[in-house]
Amino acid sequence: MAEPVPPTRPRFPGSGLAKGLAVTLRTMTKKTVTEQYPEVQPDLPPRTRGVIGLFEENCTVCMLCARECPDWCIYIDSHKETVPPAAPGGRERSRNVLDRFAIDFSLCMYCGICIEVCPFDALFWSPEFEYAETDIHELTHERDKLREWMWTVPAPPALDPAAEEPKEIAAARKTAEKLAAQAEQQEGES
Predict the structure, then answer these.
(1) For 125, what's the count of Cα atoms within 13 Å in the CB-facing half-sphere?
(2) Helix (H) or strand (E) holding 117
């Protein structure tokens, strides 16, 4: 036996058009939320995940970041260098020297695992997000570009107002001063 069909409301001609116009009028009276992006830069949260910056002085070429990356988008090359003994009669030591550190951002899924597993704080999130390229092969950024992004990394909030300067910033400042002194010395000699 067939079930009875519920009665339908009578449709008036043009009722769909009236409903559509009502939605349009409601939308027109609301404030727009569209941002004019290229002209007006967005206000980003303080610790935004943009790209990965490399603090090269802290990298010991342990390869943990490349091994843990689920996308295999980190490329690291290095060589061993012999370091003379620190004290007379000591023995020579060997250390890894970074030759290449590159991240292929066309493969990266921005999970942050590489930053979390780095035991020496060599990788950081930079809030930079405007790095589009016209060719996908140009999205592999080498250590020079990653080092540039390191300077855009915001300083971590201090736990104590009287806290000392972070060691990363002090080391970077010392390296920059040493490079500037070498450049001045070379200019003075020539």
Answers:
(1) 13
(2) helix 113-117
Q: What's the mean pLDDT in 144-170?
A: 84
- Predicted local distance difference test score (pLDDT) of residue 8: 64
Residue type, 146: L
β-pair type (140-141, 93-104): antiparallel
From 80, 103, 182, select the one nearest 150 (Cα to Cα): 103
Q: How far apart are alpha carbons 141 and 126 in whole angstroms?
A: 14
pLDDT greater at residue 165 or residue 134: 134
CA 78/CA 57 separation, integer angstroms:
14
Q: What is the pLDDT of residue 109?
A: 94
- d(Cα 37, Cα 34) in Å, to the nearest integer? 9
Reported as a single tens digit per residue, the pLDDT across 3-33 is 776 666 656 778 888 888 999 999 888 888 7
Among 135, 128, 122, 102, which Cα is nearest to 59's?
122
Q: Which two tokens stand for residue 84?
A: 């003379």
